[in-house]
Design brief:
By secondary structure, this protein is of the alpha+beta class. The chain has one domain. The protein is about 35% helix and about 30% strand. A four-stranded antiparallel β-sheet has the order 1-2-3-4. A hairpin with an 8-residue loop joins strand 1 and strand 2. It is elongated, with a radius of gyration of 28 Å. The termini are far apart.
Length: about 100
């Protein structure tokens, strides 16, 4: 028995509608991640000079994670070089404990 092209298209559309309904109404896995890992960052960047360095340094603070990085551009390698990292929340906690 030979099926007409219209009948095949109708059958295909019904299958696709069924798949869409299944994806829409069946419970799915929700993405639940650590808020600090997925939070959109709010950044502040400040440039300045440090003693003994010819090129400026850029300090970048992520306000959502309270992290600070210092970068310096290396013109010979044509890339940024990391000078350091600090967790500001941890630093503030350490300072509070050190004070009497």
């Amino acid at each position: 028995m030979k099926k007409s092209p219209i009948a095949c298209l109708v059958l295909l559309n019904l299958v696709l509608v069924g798949l869409m309904a299944a994806v829409t109404f069946l419970p799915g896995t929700e993405a639940k991640a650590n808020s600090s890992a997925t939070a959109r960052g709010k950044y502040i960047a400040v440039s300045g000079h440090i003693q003994g360095a010819k090129t400026p340094v850029i300090w970048i603070v992520d306000q959502s994670t309270q992290e600070l990085v210092a970068l310096q551009f290396d013109s010979q390698l044509n890339q940024f070089r990391s000078l350091g990292y600090r967790n500001l929340t941890l630093d503030a906690t350490t300072i509070r404990r050190a004070r009497p």
